[in-house]
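HUMAN:
Just now I want nothing more than another pair of eyes on a protein record. I would be glad if you read both lines and explained how they fit together. I have put the entry right below:
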Amino acid sequence: MSDQHLLRRNGIYYYRRRVPLHLVTAIAKKVVQVSLHTTSLKEARKRRTLRDLEWDARFEAAAAVGPAHALNQESQLAAPGEPLDESACLELVRNYVERHDREARNREAKVYPITAEERSEMQIEAEVEAQSLRAQDDLHHQWVHLAGTEALKATGKSFGDPDVPGEILAELVRRGLMELNRRYRARLADDHSRSFFDQLFNPSRPAKVTFGKLAEQHLRLVEEDAAINGLGTKGLDRQRATIALVREIVGDETSVDAVDYDACLHARTVLARLPANRTKLYGDLAIGQAIARAEKEGKPPLAPVTQERYLATLRDILDLAAKKRLIIVNPAEGLRPIKRDAIAASDKRKPFTVQQIVDFFKGGFYAECAKHTPAFAHDKRGWRFWLPLLCLFLGLRPDEAAQLHVADLKRTQKGTWYLDIEATADDDEETNGAVKTLKTVNSRRKIPLHPELLKIGLVQRKPCLGRVLINA
């Protein structure tokens, strides 16, 4: 014998039956579930027969009342007005949740489970409903469609209208139904510690925040980080320019919760077509016009690595929105440039060839220095003469060489001269405003002086080092 309409939980059999979709409003239930008060399958089958007869009669009576076609009529409504965006759909679902939560509380104030057995049955039914909402079954789709149709009623639209984002609305409705279910289960468990579970339905949620406002806050955090960690002006200006372009693409007045995955894909497409050096080429020309002219003139687009920098900034801004609970997830997470970089990192900046280095040090400046004794005496300030030589013989970065102090030139107990490359310590009070920084932690090192530097006279001309000379 079939066990249709039977559900076994903790050894007890329940009668469970879905309410026809067009009768849910009239019956005020989506699912009928009542205990059969037996652990025997044979007895449960007998009692199920009586329940089938009872609910067949109830369904027929509800259908005879007349609202049976209300749902179908509503779904055939015309679709006047403006298309719905995600923000509008969210507001509709929020209103639906608050309205139904209020109605549920009013009902529970009049009819509430008296016995522990009644409460247990209601908890089981609520848990089964939650499982159905999480599963992609027919009942799940019926509930979502019914609730979504009711939420859309005020707009005169339906799920089938072309200007209604059906998939977005369906997901918002599912989350709304889950929120109602979780609030209901919490009340059944006498848990009143929370007024909401999903931040999307926080009754005291903050007012809408625009993307421009959030980007400004992100920029302030970047500037604060730059000030504390000694980021150079050049790097900070680049970040400001990056944030400015991302704001221009997304739109300052765009609500943060409206920046969905499609908006992020649009930003990625714009970056893929945007010409390199757009401002230099086209000044204040709008993005769309600049792209059109660049494509017509055959100008190269932004390099993939540059596009990635802009997308990373977009991710950072939306990550801030997620941390502030303005959005649930970051839609830009994992977004990468459309076109991959075809040039390997090792090929982007090729080192000088031996001949190029020879030509550099045989140039006019060093040729003139060679006429003097000592050679470095020709360069009265010192930096132009010594900086290239330090980079050549010691493998220093230009920034590292330019920020050296006289005190960085040291000698071991055995007489070996070396340069101590390190950043300024927090307790170093004798910097005279010349703060030294390192590119990475591993950049701190001690480098023995090359014999050629000793021959040329670096130790003899110690005061020529870095900032000491530049400030002289």
